[in-house]
Design goal:
single chain, 7 strands, 254 residues, alpha/beta, Rossmann fold
Amino acid sequence: MSQGKGRLDGKVAIITGAGGGFGEGIAKLFAEEGAKVGVLDLRADAAERVAAEIGEGALALAADVTSRAQMEAAVQKLVEHFGAPGIFVNNAGWTHRNKPMLEVTEEEFDRVYAINVKSIYHISNIIVPLMRQQGGGAIVNIGSVAGIRPRPGLTWYNSTKGAVNILSQSMAVELAPDNIRVNAICPVMGETGLLESFMGVPDTPENRARFVATIPLGRMSRPADIARATLYLASDDAEFITGVLLPVDGGRTI
């Protein structure tokens, strides 16, 4: 790419859960498009691997998104290295295994809400003031089609993504006067490390085929699909778009 042509040139972005899956795809595409990227993950080795593969335009940040103190330290490290982030992608997520709702333990319930929902509360308290100081910014929350068309077996997970979808719209309205855009990507089941938990059965070609049969375009989502949609919403191409829940689902929610 010739210098000066990237869609995110001059931007600083931070992506949670960027040590693999959708987050890794987003971090790498953002870097290709000119952004300086904070690669944040609970697993330090994973964050360091992705940052090393990107090169000098990336900084590895090891932090637990459920810890306000760890996230504050990570964001401060990014600010000192690249400057304040104008783009934030809340991608870190977790699910309990697909099973009857009454079999999900209280520990699993608390964990899925801490990672998928409360983390956004923590992160917003850190990031929004920085964006206000800059005169604006873009936040992309990774929701899910599970928050639009829920299915049995993932009831408590589905409810966290319903929360993410609604809070994205509410944040969009509340932060619009600050020129902070907030949108959500709603992926269908993807080829990531959480796949077997989502399915609730072994990851075999036969079981994959059963789930793929529910997706009109005939395949699961891939990191590149989510990354390209996130790039659009984070870029100035979407400067008049806020509060959108964008299914990236091959037609699954139809």
